[in-house]
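yo

u said u wanted the structure for the complex thing, so here. seqs first:
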Amino acid sequence: MRVSVLVTFPQADGLRASAIEAFAAGAGGLVLEGAPDKGGLILDERFPALPIPGATLAAIDLAAANPASAPLFVTRGTIDVDRIGEAEGREDGVGIFADPEIGAFTVCAGSPPLGTTVDVARHLDVAALRAKGLDGKGVAVAVMDSGINIAHLRNRGLKAKFRSSLSWSPLRGGAAPGHHAIGHGTMCAYDALIAAPNATLLDFPILTSTRQGGNVMDGLLSNAILAYSYLLTRLSAPSWKFKGLVVNNSWGLYHSSWDFPAGHPGRYANNPNHPFNLIVGTLSRAGADLLFSAGNCGSPCPDRRCQGVTANTIVGANAHPDVMTIAGCDIHDVRAGYSSQGPGIAGMVHDKPDVTAYTHFLGSEAFGTGSPDSGTSAASAVAAGCVAAMRTRLNSFAEPPPGLMSAFKAKANGVPVPGWNADYGCGIIRPLAVAAHYGL
Amino acid sequence: MADSRMVTMTVAIPGTKPGIAQAAKALGVKAGAIDRSFGVIAVDPRRNLYAVQVRASAIASLPSDGPFQGPFSNPKIAPFGPPVD
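structre next:
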């Protein structure tokens, strides 16, 4: 088996010439007379010789770090892995070194945060959006989640506009709107405000158990039906004054066992006639922009609640035609290792996720100092902020939600190649390009 | 022992803003079998479709050809972050 190697040679005319041409931005390449072939070594003629200012750390002389003076040059080639020994230990000063593959670091559960809110804002061109007046002012962002703690957001320097009167309180005796325990909902609210710092938050704590002693992060789908119904009523009322409504849903099902079994007519995952999937369509037709996380059941590091299942995991409303389904990537544009991969479950939309947004960065620290805003939850909320930014100057009469969703897909950056793919959808979200598309 | 679980049904009811009584009549159950705290939720006004939660025992013997569908699942939902390994 042949492997790639780096090969060092003492200075020679051919090596100097190759390096000089490469540094002069010439065509580059390597032609080395009398190149050794011990061990089946074959030098890569496309890879120019590069100067090394010393053979050891102690011998490094920075003055020699140039093609004219370097005592040593490195090239690249391949060699028979079983014959490396033949090429080593030579008296002519040739050195053979490993040339391993490198790969992008993939964020998984437990990975430290990569980058910060500042990096996310830069990637989203938030400053340029703001200069165009696209900051979410006059737009409502409903966070369907575990509840928001407004004080935490304001303590982190955010304006965090909030409308308690339009928020929802499902539990008698539960926390008041905006006063929920700091956690997932607060994280999502924070992330939505990155691109839309002047949006108004609405608190919809659907992920709160109605059972005595239930976990605060539990929820039932019926909570979401109630919440959507409440929102529909408010959206349709004459007192509704916002120019847009964006609804973020960073939740879903982790495993098919949470649902009725496959084939049951009342199942949720692949049933467009399930009442929640019906009301999703109704709220979209009423003018709301709906975003759902793709999920955290992606390969190579799915959440443990996925029970090892990484295929067909984008289900239910997360795969609905009237929602924008969001995958997650880090600030280096590398898909998060847990971000659920398409296609959507059969019976719903195949080409899901729709687009990718940023996650796994240091942001709200809602889960503790130094903890990342993570999961496709954070990505969906970041994307919700981008949509809210557009709605500052583009209401849903001028462009109904399906049209705006199409624009976000069309203007995504198309990684790894243009068009839809199962990892990134249509690519990474690019709100400034969407703004340009609409002449905003 | 009667099944006291609540299940989710959809029911087609003409007219606007039907109440518990109209939903019960459309379903063919007693009004007391319908969860009042959930109410009658409009899920698709274009088709006059509403969602209710009704006691499972009350729908056990419903005919198959009424203006209703269900029972539908009411699964647990959970947030997609932070991921857990």
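Chain A has a mean pLDDT of 92. Chain A touches chain B through 64 residues (CB under 8 Å).
cya
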